[in-house]
Amino acid sequence: MHVQTLLAMTTLVTVLMAGGGARAVAAGANYQPLVGQEGKDVIWVPNPAAMVEKMLDMAAVTAQDFVIDLGSGDGRNVIGAAGRGARARGVEFNPELVEHSRRRAAAAGVGGRVEFVEGDMFAADVSEASVLALFLLPDNLRKLMPKFVDMKPGSRIVSNTYEIPGWPSDKSETVRGDCAAFCIVFLYVVPAKVAGVWRTVDGDITFEQDYQRLSGSYVYNGITLPIENARMNGTEIRFAVNGVEYSGRVDGDVMQGEAKGRRTVAWRATRVRTQ
User: Fold this and answer.
1) Residue ending a domain, choose from 140, 171, 189
2) Mean pLDDT in residue range 63-79
3) 141 and 9 in a common domain
């Protein structure tokens, strides 16, 4: 699928360039962007309406969210999020697209819940976002990785077509119907950072972390036991030790929850060392 979508983009750009290159039509209030027009880091290929809705559905966007789109183009992801009651911001390098997006938001009646700013997506602050809705190339996503992993745990990232390099998605879905290219959405839930040593009343747990995947060991009353089936989902943690299923929630340097074995008991651990 990735090869097909990349070929589709290449074909699209080739056709546009054969006609003399993609250029935006007119200026000011009459400005209309053209599919394939060049940008600073990517060409502009808009999300179909069905893709916008699928991305927002997978991110479970509600009125409590703050959605950011990096490289927001004509603003359709931002406007779609605002239509669900969310606050939203688009970061776009092209000033004409920024003004065009503002006009589209006003026409859609959501101008009061959105903002469009002119800027470089690699310099943008995403710390306030609970959702990122993106349509960027793998190299762009790779460069943005430090921002992604530092987002608040539980934040959601949805990416059209392209996976974040090295980070396995939590979920993927395909847009059905008449979607011909750029039809897959990947969902990532930013995990809490738990790598290190955590102390319980019975011993120390050592976690090694690869995004949402965990491994490690539990030194339980002096006996070292492997951690199995360990995984993060935002701030939620699950793992098994010697047949006992642990589930809980991470809050800073404390994690606590229930351990289910022959009986169910509460458990709690505090961080004593970060890896």
Assistant:
1) 189
2) 97
3) yes
Query: CA-CA distance, 82 to 80, in Å (whole number)?
Result: 5
135-148 pLDDT tens trace: 999 999 999 999 99
- Domain finish residue from 189, 216, 249: 189
The pLDDT, as a whole number, for residue 25 is 54
Comparing C-alpha atoms, which of 117, 110, 159, 112 is closest to residue 138?
159
- Is residue 209 domain-shared with residue 138, that is, in the same domain? no
Residue 74 main-chain phi, psi, to 5 deg? -90, 10
Average pLDDT value over all residues in the chain: 90
**Contact of 198 with 211, CB cutoff 8 Å:** no
Under the banding of pLDDT at 50, 70 and 90, the label for residue 38 is confident
Q: For residue 55, is pLDDT > 70?
A: yes
266: containing domain: 196-274
Say if CB 90 and CB 77 are below 8 A apart.
yes
Q: Given this model, what pLDDT does residue 6 score?
A: 42
Report the predicted TM-score, pTM, of the whole model to 2 decimal places: 0.87
The CATH number that applies at residue 243 is 2.40.128.30
Closest CA to 147 of 136, 158, 160, 157: 157
Residue type for position 138: P
Beta carbons of 101 and 74 less than 8 angstroms apart: yes
Q: Give dist(CA 186, CA 175) in Å, integer.
A: 11
Per-residue model confidence (pLDDT) at position 180 = 77
Residues 94 and 223 in one domain: no
* Count of CA atoms in the C-beta half-sphere (13 A) of 105: 28
177 and 200 both lie in a single domain = no
